[in-house]
């Protein structure tokens, strides 16, 4: 199905282009199933509108879930390994990078070169002297930054049904906290991370207190767990 959707589409087709014709051809039942799959498999991964996504890239990329590997001990050990022997200054935001073929000056300190890896949406907070070359700016204008957020909840006990691969999914209407990672086995305490993306972040997360968000997430998890128990799955 996915191959037939992208096979005839131009390489530059957006997901919106490809999906609009396909969704219009579906029965109401199939449309609901397709929308739920889009919510969880595409929107939760990307968090941007479909006109900003490449149909080919998004539909042909393998998703997450089955077969994923968890890193025992967490990502921290990778960072510790890479940081060994380096002088690292935490909580020291860089404000200005002056660069030329002769080298760089970062907040007044000279260096041979600078590798700048801050998130793209923070780039405007930096003063770059001179600014980025035209080709860099043109490339950056074609990259969107998605809105995807995670909320971690810790409980006294794991009261929700456990799942072999640690992923819990909930098809809510309209989309909300659609996916949880059950971190209990990994971190050793009953804990879930709830994911939310795109418009749902604005509807259910932003502008609310931490407590309101926590209650909303716990409610969604409770509804999902109740449904699982009722349906015997
Ligand atoms: C909600 C959410 C869930 C995700 N889940 C997963 C997942 O399950 N698996 C996965 O593989 N990836 C996941 N990702 C993606 C992953 O977190 C990112 O791809 C990865 O962290 C990007 O790494 P980075 O080094 O580019 O940027 P970041 O990790 O954002 O690091 C940028 C660093 O730059 C620092 N910085 C910013 N401004 C300055 C400044 N002026 N001066 C100095 N330092 C500055 C910041 O403090 C930060 O430490 C998730 C992302 C989000 C938002």
**Which sequence of SSEs, written as H and E, runs from N to C?**
HHHHHEEEEHEEEHEHH
Radius of gyration: 22 Å
Number of helices: 9
Distance between the termini: 27 Å
Outline the biggest β-sheet: 4 strands, mixed
- Chain oligomer state: single chain
Strand order of the largest sheet: 3-2-1-4
Q: Strand-residue fraction?
A: 15-25%
Quick one: overall form?
A: globular
Q: What ligands are attached or bound here?
A: flavin-adenine dinucleotide
Runs in which pLDDT lies below 50 for 5 or more consecutive residues are none
Structural class call reads alpha+beta
The counted number of beta strands is: 8
Count of discrete structural domains: 3
Roughly what is the average pLDDT, rounded to an integer?
A: 87
> How helix-rich are the residues, as a percent range?
25-40%
Account of the 3D structure:
This protein is α+β, with helices and mostly antiparallel strands and 233 residues long. It folds into three domains: 2-60, no CATH class; 76-141, no CATH class; 148-231. Helix content is 38%, strand content 15%. The chain is built from nine helices and eight strands. The protein has helices at residues 2-7, 15-24, 28-46, 55-60, 76-83, 134-141, 184-187, 199-204, 210-231; strands at residues 96-100, 103-106, 109-111, 127-129, 148-154, 167-169, 179-182, 191-197. Strands 3-2-1-4 form a four-stranded mixed beta sheet, with no helix packed on it. A four-stranded antiparallel beta sheet has the order 5-8-7-6. A hairpin with a 2-residue loop joins β2 and β3 (109-111). The protein is globular. It starts with a helix and ends with a helix. The mean pLDDT is 87. The structure holds flavin-adenine dinucleotide (FAD). Flavin-adenine dinucleotide (FAD) binds at residues 93-94, 117-119, 122, 126, 148-150.
